[in-house]
Design a protein that fits this description.
It is globular and about 60 Å long. By secondary structure, the chain is of the alpha/beta class. A hairpin with a 2-residue loop joins strand 11 (about 320) and strand 12. It starts with a helix and ends with a helix. It is about 40% helix and about 20% strand. Helix 1 crosses helix 5, helix 3 (about 35-55) runs parallel beside helix 5 (about 160-170) and helix 6 packs parallel to helix 8. The protein has helices spanning about 1-15, 20-25, 35-55, 75-85, 160-170, 175-190, 200-210, 215-220, 230-240, 260-270, 300-310, 340-350, and strands spanning about 30, 65, 95, 105-110, 130-135, 150, 240, 245-250, 275-285, 285-295, 320, 325-330. It has two domains: about 1-220, Alpha-Beta Complex (inorganic pyrophosphatase (n-terminal core)), CATH 3.90.1640.10; about 230-350, Diaminopimelate Epimerase, Chain A, domain 1, CATH 3.10.310. The chain has a six-stranded parallel sheet with strand order 3-2-1-4-5-6. A six-stranded mixed sheet has the order 7-8-9-10-12-11, sandwiched between helices.
Length: about 350
């Protein structure tokens, strides 16, 4: 592992001091396709790492962090509040506009995601990322055209990967505030360490020793989104269940409550006898879909690609509690203008 980390650091250093200057007049933009505690912690530390490399090479360029969508889950809001509270000398996060023109002239960095074409960022647009660091399984094989790519599915959190890189380069990059965010990122993304790998556990131990205990407790002491029970009740009354599969539509979902689509899917797939749950909701000008499988005959990748690969693209997936997780982000032009409930039911059930 030490040799691998050294190799990655050398590659990143060479990239930052050569191609970055030539190709990225607008600096680097670290994009979080889906904001959560793990993505935030990894992005904040990666920005420090890259900025340090640039500084040592006497290269002046900006390194910004942008997030997509809305920050609605209590854990995500707590993570952002903690970052804003302690970010002395570091710039605030920016919300990405969703327009590809805003990426022109900048080097795109993907953290906690790796899809070149990701509808959560810019629909049907090849991002051509320069740096990719991710821990998710992909729903379908793809070639990542990038100068530096590390997609490692043997860990349960992106925070683990970036922390390994930072420690191998300069441990002084990680102060108490960073240790706190990293600890929360690993703890939350591995489902309270129940699906943590040995590398996650090792890094989590370092984080706990270096973090601020009270701040860490506040970050992890969060539960379901505020409106979860409201939307779960709505799903229960509108769901279409046939044998082992269930489809539920939440209709219009406020941007602040978009995380409820995922948490409702988590709840429905744990119903007795259910192996496939598909939950959708209309958020602004998109239809967001969360897919969950548990002991299903098809892998989550096959299910996601079969249902949505030609209708907005599929997202990465991961496995927790024996539940495979995936999803899609569809544009309104890709779905019927009326009766979405019937359309989704026919799509999933095939009738």
């Amino acid at each position: 592992m030490a040799e691998k980390l050294q190799e990655l650091n050398v590659a990143l250093t060479e990239f930052a001091t050569s191609d970055l200057c030539k190709q990225s007049n607008g600096g680097l933009i670290i994009i979080l396709a889906q904001f959560d505690a793990d993505a935030l912690a990894a992005a904040v530390l990666l920005r420090r790492l890259v900025s340090k490399m640039l500084e040592k090479s006497c290269v002046k360029t900006s390194v910004r962090i942008m997030y997509c969508g809305c920050i609605g889950h209590p854990q995500s809001r707590a993570a952002l509040a903690e970052y804003d509270y302690v970010r002395t000398g570091e710039s605030a996060l920016e919300k990405f506009s969703g327009k590809k023109d805003d990426l022109i002239g900048s080097g795109v960095v993907l953290v906690d995601s790796s899809a070149q074409v990701d509808a959560r960022i810019v629909p049907k647009f090849n991002l051509e990322p320069l740096i990719v660091i991710d821990h998710h399984h992909l729903t379908e094989p793809q070639s990542i055209a990038t100068k530096f790519s590390w997609v490692d599915v043997t860990v349960g959190a992106a925070s683990t990967l970036v922390a390994e890189l930072a420690l191998a380069y300069d441990s002084a990059l990680i102060d108490q505030n960073a240790w706190t965010l990293l600890a929360a990122g690993i703890y939350i993304d591995t489902d309270r360490l129940t699906h943590a790998t040995p590398r996650d556990i090792t890094m989590y131990g370092k984080c706990i020793r270096g973090c601020h205990p009270e701040a860490f407790r506040k970050l992890i002491d969060q539960d379901y989104p505020t409106q979860h029970l409201h939307f779960l009740a709505k799903a229960e009354s509108a769901k279409d269940q046939r044998r082992y599969s269930v489809v539920a539509g939440l209709d219009q979902v406020p941007d602040n409550d978009r995380d409820c689509i995922a948490t409702v899917a988590d709840s429905l797939v744990n119903m007795p006898g259910i192996t496939l749950a598909v939950v959708w909701g209309v958020v602004e000008n998109q239809v967001l879909v969360s897919i969950r499988t548990k002991g299903h005959s098809e892998s989550i990748g096959r299910v996601t690609f079969r249902l949505f690969a030609n209708k907005g693209g599929s997202k990465p997936c991961n496995v927790k509690d024996g539940v495979d997780k995936g999803g899609a982000c569809l544009r309104m032009s890709e779905v019927p203008s009326s009766d979405l409930h019937q359309w989704f039911s026919k799509l999933v059930h095939g009738q």
